[in-house]
Amino acid sequence: MTPGQALTTLRAAEARDGVLDLARRRDLLARLAAEVNRRAEDIAAAADADFGGRSRVETMLADVVLIAESALHARRHLRRWAKPRRAAVPFHSWPSRARVEPVPKGVIGIMSPWNYPFQLSFAPAIDAIAAGNRIVVKPSEHTPRCAALIGDILAAAFGGDVALTVTGDAAVAADFAAQRWDHLVFTGGTETGRAVARAAAANLVPVTLELGGKCPAIVLPGADLPGAARAILQGKLLNAGQTCVAADTVLLVGHSRAAFDAACRAAGDAVPETAIVSEAQGARLDRLSAGAVLTPLAADGPGLRRAASLAEAPDDHPLLREEIFGPILPVVVCDDVAEANRWIADRPAPLVIYLFGADAAEEAAIAAATRSGAIVAGRCVEHVGFSDLSFGGIGASGQGRTHGEEGFRGLSNLRARVHHARFSLARLFDPPRGAMAERILKMLVRQV
After folding, report:
1. How far apart are the first and last CA of the chain?
2. Do residues 235 and 329 lie in contact, with contact meaning Cβ atoms separated by under 8 Å?
3. Contact assessment for residue 74 and residue 29, using Cβ atoms and an 8 Å cutoff
4. Is the pLDDT of residue 448 over 70?
5. Which of 38, 199, 210, 432 could form a disulfide linkage to 177, CB 3.0–4.6 angstroms apart?
6. Considering 14, 35, 58, 210, which one is annotated as catalytic?
């Protein structure tokens, strides 16, 4: 099935059956949670096979538990989210009534990447279904077993009148992005995101872009250095660093590179349980790090399991300018918080800034001087699993929000509804206007 055929099929289903009411949406969300849990071992096996070695625990947490919890969270809160909100009416239009109601947009296209194939297909699907939409999902061709299983799970949970899956290569993805969706959600690299946004713009399709960026971890003088090193490495080693919110660079303020090196070595095993997804991905990391000084923290594991490495490079090196997406962690020493802020401001805004050891004044200074999708203190990556916390970037790291109520609202049409009263002061401005209209106009001007 082509993207166009899938879109046509679901438009016909919507015309035939109408939009999904709240009861149907709540049932579909419960079905997705149950189906993901039922197929949990299949999900872990498919990811392990596609990656040539992927941690079962990581898959269970990121691609099973997170999704089941998110679906059930949306189901629990859906009635409140979907309730129309009263809007204030200016006094000259009293006693007219106005409200804003979230209604479905229609058919949503979802383009998901390979690094968390199930999570990044199903999380936007939850937002879309909660908002009453139908969906077409295009999983990554780089994880084909996962893509096939995603289609099976969506069919079992939602049925072909609500959700369809389209598979294929880059040409199919380009065709997908060019369709007249009612909204398009893309998760992936920034450059591909730009191409997707251009294709969508040709049809005036609104987009949600979840991209990447260089997420810095700032280690401040007040940090417990061993604890900070451990938390940063744990986030970095998750999925072999192939995580858009993994710490991409460490900025040390008040700590030496040698001390951080030692703290990382003391943190324990630095070999990810998950492999680099492909030889091509490994070759990309080699090209990216060429000319930098790498300090491996352990020996490489079997297959494409690469040990984490700390890196030192000049400021104009690609490692300090491009998203790494692997177990390489550049370390930069900054004289003070102001220099760390300048380092961040000199680059596109990241998805998240991590803070370790920041006091209230330092955190406020960093928040005021930088732009990011989130600021997180004390740990890395885990905030993505907070079902009620909106997730997204700004600028080159993305636009729009997913997860929770903000994800629901982002994929809803926030429609205005107004019921005008039979009489209000505003009627005095209807032609022909008399002296009373002029007096009221003067009163309104003085009030403003």
Report:
1. 58
2. no
3. yes
4. no
5. 199
6. 210
Q: What is the CATH number of the domain that holds 357?
A: 3.40.309.10
Is residue 128 one of the residues assigned to a domain? yes
Q: Is residue 313 part of a domain?
A: yes
The reply to whether 153 and 77 lie within a common domain is yes
446: number of CA atoms within 13 Å, CB side? 6
Note whether residue 440 is domain-resident.
no
Residue 446: the pLDDT is 81
- 380 catalytic, yes or no? no
Per-residue pLDDT, 425: 84
SS3 of 52, please?
coil
Crossing angle of helices 66-82/22-38, nearest 10°? 170
Same domain, 388 and 329: yes
| Residues 170 and 72 occupy one common structural domain | yes
Looking at the 3D structure of the chain, how many domains does it have? 2
Task: For residue 3, report the phi and psi dihedrals to the nearest 5 degrees.
Answer: -55, -40
The arithmetic mean of pLDDT across residues 199-222, rounded, is 96
- Structure-block tokens of residue 321: 């300018």
Residue 341: its pLDDT value, please?
97
In terms of domains, do 402 and 353 share one?
Answer: no
pLDDT digits (tens, 9 = 90+) for 236-283: 999 999 999 999 999 999 999 999 999 999 998 889 999 999 999 999
For the segment 14-35, the average pLDDT, to the nearest whole number, is: 97
What was the pLDDT predicted at 429?
Answer: 86
Domain that holds residue 179: 3-211+398-413
Candidate list 244, 264, 334, 380, residue with the active-site label: 244
| 334 in active site | no
- Residue 446 belongs to some domain of the structure: no
